[in-house]
UniProtKB/TrEMBL annotation:
<keyword id="KW-0547">Nucleotide-binding</keyword>
<feature type="transmembrane region" description="Helical">
    <location>
        <begin position="30"/>
        <end position="48"/>
    </location>
</feature>
<dbReference type="Pfam" id="PF13188">
    <property type="entry name" value="PAS_8"/>
</dbReference>
<dbReference type="Pfam" id="PF02518">
    <property type="entry name" value="HATPase_c"/>
</dbReference>
<feature type="domain" description="Histidine kinase">
    <location>
        <begin position="344"/>
        <end position="559"/>
    </location>
</feature>
<dbReference type="GO" id="GO:0000156">
    <property type="term" value="F:phosphorelay response regulator activity"/>
</dbReference>
<dbReference type="InterPro" id="IPR003661">
    <property type="entry name" value="HisK_dim/P_dom"/>
</dbReference>
<keyword id="KW-0472">Membrane</keyword>
<dbReference type="Pfam" id="PF25323">
    <property type="entry name" value="6TM_PilS"/>
</dbReference>
<dbReference type="InterPro" id="IPR004358">
    <property type="entry name" value="Sig_transdc_His_kin-like_C"/>
</dbReference>
<keyword id="KW-1133">Transmembrane helix</keyword>
<keyword id="KW-0067">ATP-binding</keyword>
<dbReference type="InterPro" id="IPR000014">
    <property type="entry name" value="PAS"/>
</dbReference>
<dbReference type="InterPro" id="IPR036890">
    <property type="entry name" value="HATPase_C_sf"/>
</dbReference>
<keyword id="KW-0418">Kinase</keyword>
<dbReference type="InterPro" id="IPR003594">
    <property type="entry name" value="HATPase_dom"/>
</dbReference>
<feature type="transmembrane region" description="Helical">
    <location>
        <begin position="90"/>
        <end position="110"/>
    </location>
</feature>
């Protein structure tokens, strides 16, 4: 099995040093100087070694060769000189070459001509040095050639014109060589700089692509025609249930992945983009419904466009999205849109609704017929109901804003001892409500008005579904470690599973006459104060053991105060 492959293998791109060409060329020229010096010493030593005794000129020649070899080795071992500059080291290196070659040529060592060796310092100065150094070296070589021509004319009585002409043409050739080498070296430098920048940009872009792919909410797989996963981001690994979370595995390893393998093969063979809803997993492992989109990647797409088979890799990119998350996002967007629209409608309804209520109250004062007063009361009742719905809708927008002041410590039992009787009297449910306050002196961080709103909403919801017998609605408090618990229990029928899933969502209700905002507002208010609310089917906190619907609130215990009295359990009376 192939090893793990990165989503964007930018580390595999070669790292380009800042100036590799100059370093390589310097090492090449420095090594060539050492080789030339060693060959000169070897050849001249073999030619002059048979002289007995050794001629004084031969001693000079061999001594010059030994010194030249030592100088070239020292230059090779020393750090490279500055590029494109004229410095002492360049002058020393070029000067040594010119001096040694001129001396050997002057001494006629071995009866050979050493003029061609002058090309080495000219090339070295042109390729590695500045324009002034290149032209200066060419000028120095030309002067040496002219000096040699003068010496031959004077000492050896050579004909002047051909000798000077040959020296001049050779010097002109070295000038041309210097200019051409300088131009080629500059072009190489520019191309290498462009290549370095392109590679750095490619490395950066590949790194950015990897970071983006790694953090995408959608899963991404890159699969070849054999089902080998070449790349896999964390989201895809989580959807597949792959433990290691790295690439290098095959989709044929598990039966739950075979659908993806078939889609990848169809995409590569048909060179088409596919989309399907599939289920990943088997009966023995968690199943995940996902939306799958496939795309052709690499040279395959280009080959399909050109009409040939292509020699590139056959790859398929698979995008995976969890259908449950898609549905949740869609539902959230719909609810947000509904909330904005409902808030706008509520603002428009409030003013005419208030006018209707006031007009109905004025009209009711003039009515004497019982039937007409009954109709007026019906109008007033529905006005109040609509006003409550409008307040609920507007409260949804209000509870989204964070609290600016910190909620003061509130005695929980003392607050509930005032809220529950008030609700019982106003809703005429005193005979059905029973409380058990078992957290005397416990303090919680909650705004009193917000706590009243939460309790009233939960009690209204309980009264809507509770039975008629005594103790059908129960409110109980307790202390558990550093938490306070408030339970609002009712003996209503169990909720359906579909209702439980959306219980705390806005605008969701199992009844057409409800706005579906009460429980949502309760959850929002609890979260604003660091509390949690949940639902469960549990036995009654008080009385005979029977199951009912229980809404449990967990609040943070922030302190205690002197006990407000012994734990109480009493029936609420009007």
């Amino acid at each position: 099995m192939a090893g793990p492959v990165s989503v964007a293998p930018w580390d595999a791109l070669p790292h380009v040093p800042q100036d590799p060409a100059f370093a390589r060329l310097w090492r090449g020229f420095a090594t060539a100087r050492v080789v030339v010096a060693a060959v000169l010493l070897l050849l001249l030593g073999m030619l002059m070694g048979g002289q007995q005794p050794l001629h004084p000129d031969s001693r000079w020649v061999l001594g010059i060769c030994v010194l030249y070899l030592l100088a070239t080795v020292a230059a090779r071992l020393m750090p490279q000189p500055a590029r494109r500059q004229v410095g002492p080291r360049w002058v020393f290196i070029i000067g040594v070459d010119l001096a040694v070659i001129a001396a050997l040529d002057l001494l006629q060592a071995g009866g050979a001509s050493y003029g061609p060796l002058l090309a080495l310092p000219v090339l070295m100065a042109s390729v590695l040095g500045s324009s002034r150094l290149a032209l200066g070296t060419a000028a120095g070589v030309t002067l040496l050639l002219l000096a040699e021509a003068s010496a031959r004319t004077l000492v050896l009585s050579f004909e002047m014109t051909p000798t000077y002409l040959q020296a001049g043409l050779t010097g002109l050739g070295y000038f041309a060589l210097a200019l051409l080498a300088q131009h080629l070296a500059g072009r190489l430098e520019r191309e290498e700089e462009s290549a370095r920048r392109s590679r750095d940009a490619a490395r950066l872009q590949a790194h950015v692509n990897e970071l983006v792919i790694e953090t995408l909410a959608a899963g991404i797989l890159v699969v070849d025609e054999h089902g080998l996963v070449r790349a896999c981001n964390p989201t895809a690994a989580a959807l597949l249930g792959h433990e290691s979370g790295t690439a290098g595995f095959r989709l044929s390893e598990r039966s739950g992945w075979l659908t993806l393998l078939e889609l990848a093969r169809r995409t590569i063979e048909g060179r088409a983009h596919l989309m399907a809803e599939v289920t990943i997993g088997t009966a023995d492992e968690p199943q995940r419904p996902v939306m799958v989109r496939t795309r052709v990647a690499g040279d395959t797409a280009e080959a399909g466009a050109d009409g040939d088979d292509g020699d590139g890799a056959q790859l398929c990119v698979i995008f995976l999205e969890d259908l449950r998350e898609l549905e949740a996002r869609l539902r959230t967007e719909k609810l947000a849109a509904m909330g904005r629209m409902s808030a706008a409608v509520a603002h428009e309804i409030r003013n005419p609704l208030t006018a209707i209520g006031q007009a109905n109250a004025l009209l009711d004062e003039e009515l004497t017929d019982p039937t007409q007063r009954q109709l007026s009361a019906l109008v007033q009742q529905n006005v109040q109901r609509l006003a409550q719905i409008v307040d609920d809708v507007l409260d949804v927008a209000r509870v989204k804003h964070p609290l600016t002041p910190r909620a003061a410590a509130l005695p929980l039992d003392l607050a509930l001892a005032g809220i529950c009787p008030d609700w019982a009297r106003q809703s005429a449910n005193a005979d059905r409500l029973r409380t058990s306050l078992q957290a005397p002196g416990a303090l919680c961080a909650f705004e009193p008005d917000h706590l009243r709103r939460v309790l009233v909403n939960l009690l209204d919801n309980a009264a809507r579904y509770a039975g008629t017998q005594p103790d059908s609605i129960q409110v109980a408090t307790s202390v558990s470690g550093d938490q306070l618990n408030v339970a609002v229990w009712s003996d209503g029928p169990p909720l359906e599973s579909t209702v439980q899933q959306h219980l705390f969502e806005p605008f969701f209700s199992s009844e057409s006459r409800s706005s579906g905002l009460g429980l949502y507002i309760c959850r929002q208010l609890c979260e604003r104060h660091g509390a949690r609310i949940g639902y469960g089917r549990t036995p009654a906190p008080l009385g005979a053991p029977r199951e009912g619907n229980n809404f449990l609130i967990h609040l943070n215990l922030v302190g205690t105060s002197p006990a407000d009295g012994e734990p109480s359990a009493a029936r609420i009376r009007a």
